Amino acid sequence: MELRINRRALIGLGLVGALAASSITLLRAETGTASSHREAPMIAGDPRNDNTDVYAFVSPDKADTVTLVANWIPFQDPQGGPNFYTWDTNSRYNIKIDNDGDAKPDITYQWTFRDNDRRGNTTFLYNNGPVTSLDDPNLLYKQRYTLKRITESGTKTLLSDAIAAPSNVGPASMPNYGTLRSQAVKGLPDGGKAYAGQADDPFFLDLRIFDLVYGGDLSEVGQDTLKGYSTSALVLQVPAEDLALKGDAKRNPVVGVWSTTDKKGSHGYTQVSRLGNPLVNEVVAAAGMKDAFNALPPAKDADVPALVKRVTNPEVPALIESIYGIKAPKTPRNDLVEIFLTGIAKANGPIKADLNSQLLNKDVNPDKFRPSEMLRLNMSIPPTKDPNRLGVIGGDLAGFPNGRRLADDVVDIELQALEGAAQTGKIVQPLAAGDKVDKNDVPFGTTFPYLPLPSNKAVNQN
Hints:
- The protein is of the alpha+beta class and 462 residues long.
- It has one domain.
- Helices cover 18% and strands 23% of the residues.
- It has twelve helices and twelve strands.
- Strands 3, 4, 5, 6, 10, 11 and 12 form a seven-stranded antiparallel β-sheet that branches. Strands 1-2-9-8-7 form a five-stranded antiparallel β-sheet.
- Strand 5 and strand 6 form a beta hairpin.
- The protein is globular and about 65 Å long.
- The protein starts with 6 loop residues before the first helix and ends in a 38-residue tail after the last helix.
């Protein structure tokens, strides 16, 4: 098919150099905003609204469906009682879908929670005996939720008064957490499944990248910083046609995915967290931009030259060159514009492949296409029988940056992309080993919701 694109938008992305007055306004932090494992300064005081990671992939055991995962509340230690980890009842948790490329949500899946707390003034315990089911009277605190699907045509309630799986208190309190997990998986009225509750944090990496990029000599690698920690997960599995433009996943297979948290304040709800591609706000945005980035909707990304310049002229390659002497690729980095802002298509830039831009959808109006940061997935690419952890760079088109599977090694993938691997088609050998954390500390499941069960052992135990 012949593809056209809004060239003015792409020229604006590729040629920006100065900070425009409009970007000063857009990057002014009006509220406390943050997401993704404490990467923005203001998040430390609001972990319940801290969105840590987003995943989107064609379901490996049900290829006509897509699984969406969004996690919140990072660094949950299994021994973090007595109140453990709760969803914010004053917030709305969202997974958003753009299927026509205008950077605005066409579909929003939205969760809201309420407390069911029977402890009162009688006990400090989360449970006063072994919990063997979600309805067990020994479980003194639980949260219930409502799940809605919001589109331009209206709002539909998919689940009402569903119970979220609790925090895993320990083996005496919850002798079989797998049973609680199974009971918390709910069927959706039009097909599909939903899960809300605690899970092992599926992100695996060595966070010592922030210590002058692994100690300045690659000596600080090989330690999974998130080993043993849990997160709170919202997981959906829905038919691909439910996400596709005009309900036609064959003609229009590409969708953009991101998640947000809206927190209720004196003037209504305000977006305080946003996450699409992994590590963007952590290592692409500068410190002074991080809080404000999370308040921006994707439709405004291209209006912020200072932010876009962090993509076209990224900091990490220059930092690696100064520390390790590996020459940074030439700028402007229009290959990174494709990966992060437009999706990959032959018409978009130097990466000569048609992979995951919404411009590949046959019913998209190219004149309304808007470059924006989001995770993009081509739902027509089937699951890989033997996935490669390096995704597309490793020759596996079903992996990141075409969506994100749980086992995709996004740190190593993005490091290679930043160093130019998507331009050359070759791995940058001096950094081939990456952070030497190549998989999660516990295996992923083979059926919905795929996430490992949360640990019940202290992170700091010997």
